[in-house]
Amino acid sequence: MEGIIESMPIRRNLVPLRLTEADHEYLRKVATAPSEDPRRIERALVLLAYAEGRPLTEIAKEYQLTLSKVRRCVDRALAFGPRSALDDVPRPGRPSRITPEARSWIVSLTFQNPQDLGYTESSWTERLLAHHIRNNARSLGHQSVSHISPGTISKIMADNPYMQHGPFYEGRHPENPAIPILHLAHPLSGPLMLLAGIHLETAQVWGIVRPQHTEAEFIEWLKLLDKKLPANHLIEVIVNPAPTRVATDIRAYLLATPNRFEFIFSPAHGAWLNLVESLFTKWINQVVISQPRLRPDTMAQVIEEYLDSINLDPVHFRWRGTPVGEDIW
């Protein structure tokens, strides 16, 4: 989301930044902390000045910053919240060369028996799957994977949410243990993605089921939250720092709804700490694995009904562990 053009025109009607007392106190502490990162101090000073209604040009001149740098800081605060704006937004990195459609096609192939496609093997190996993809990718419009390697297939499977939560598991060829085999604990007719979140105050679960998870689906989910919650509430969203969270279209939507959302990015190495992961585990165990073969549209309906059943009698999460030491909270 750092893709803001330097030469963008100056906006005459700037959106005010609303700070709570806690936000104001937090920014003030950061701005006056001698051991704080200089970049965070700089950004805190900019946001405090902007919240007072001072012009961007005046702020830039006082702190000897470029106007575009001040504007980027303010835009981050309006989009993600003042505290998240103090840190660098997770960067999406180089765009993937493999299209989402090609990834979905590869995953859907693992739901089929190789014998149904003319092979003698009854289970997929990464090598056999790569051979099939290379022979058929161009004719099906998936040129981005026409030269795919078994190693890339392994990475695609590892990145797939079904693989992460259990319906797939990896075994070994009975005659040659060096060859990994992709097994399906629960074969579906196609990939589905559940994008959901838990409202901590009410324990309600709001989610959408779609064939893929791109920035468009994430914006759709944010619009769902915007519709569910009162208009004057600040929506704090704890999210994993995935590339789809920082895409240009998402930033544009957040800037169009300033002071509405605040993103709290969980550390990349601690994404499993997000409470919603427990929901995904229950969804896999109680819905996906327990169901027979279903069409994607039928499975989507089953998942949506499952979410509705959860919301009929929501259960608040309670920590049951006992803190050890004063620094544990």
Automatic annotation (TrEMBL):
Name this polypeptide is given: Tc1-like transposase DDE domain-containing protein
Recorded superkingdom: Bacteria
Domain Tc1-like transposase DDE positions: 193-286
Species this chain originates from: Sulfobacillus benefaciens
Record Pfam families: DDE_3, HTH_32
